[in-house]
Amino acid sequence: MQPIKLAIVVGSVRSGRVGPTVAAWVRGVAEQRATIDVVDVDLADFRLPDSLVANDDTERFIRTIGACDAFVFVTPEYNHGIPGPLKNALDTVKYEWRAKPVGFVSYGGLGGGIRATEQLRQITAELHMVSVRDAVSLHRVRKRFDDEGGLDDAAAVDGLGRLLDQLEWWAVAVAGARAARDYPG
Predict the structure, then answer these.
(1) 1: pLDDT strictly greater than 80
(2) 51-87 burial by CB neighbour count: b if 16+ within 10 A, else e?
(3) How far apart are CA 3 and CA 38, in angstroms?
(4) What domains does the chain contain, in order, with CATH numbers?
C-alpha cells in the first residue's frame, strides 16, 4: 500500500500561538515513518467564512481534506473547549471527513487540553470520523519545548507513537472498506 496521507491540522490561529511548534514536533515524529506522507494544514492559511458560504479558500480547504487519509488535530483548549476556527473548519467540510481516522494532540496549562480532546471526540463522531483511542496531552506546553523544538515529555513521545500506530491501522482498514463499497453515512 502507498504511504497514508496524514494531515496535521493546526487548530489555533491566534497571534503568538504555540500550535505550530507542537505540529512541527508531530510532523518530525510522523516523517520518520516510511508509511506516512505528512500534509501540513494550518488553519491560519485559510480564510473560512463563519457563514459557511463557499469561496476559493473553502474549496481549497475541502480539496485538501479530501485528499488526506487520516488526521491529527493539534489543538489548544480555550475556555474548556476547542478554538472557534477549528470548529468552523470542521463544519466547513462535510463528506471529505467521513470514514477517516483522526487522532488528537492537545496542549494547554495544567489541564493539557484534555477537555478540548473530549469535545473533539463528540464532534468527529458526528462527522462519521473514526477517532483513535490514544491521544497526547501536553501540560504546561510552553515549558515543554526547548529552543530547537525538542520535547522533554517521555509520556507524550510514547503516546504519539501509539497514536500514529492506531491511525495507520485505521487508515488501512477504512481505505479497504471504502474500496469495497461506499460508506453508508
Answers:
(1) no
(2) eeeeeeebeebbebbeebbbbbbbbbbbeeebbebbe
(3) 9
(4) 4-180 (3.40.50.360)
Cell numbers linked to 111: 489541564
Grid cell listed for 113: 487540553
Cα–Cα distance for residue pair 43/65, rounded to 1 Å: 12
**100, amino acid identity:** K
| Burial of 179 from C-beta contacts in 10 A (0-12 / 13-18 / 19+) | exposed
Q: Using an 8 Å Cβ cutoff, are 72 and 9 in contact?
A: yes
pLDDT tens readout for residues 107-126: 998 899 999 999 999 999 99
Instruction: Answer whether 105's CB lies under 8 Å from 26's CB.
Output: yes
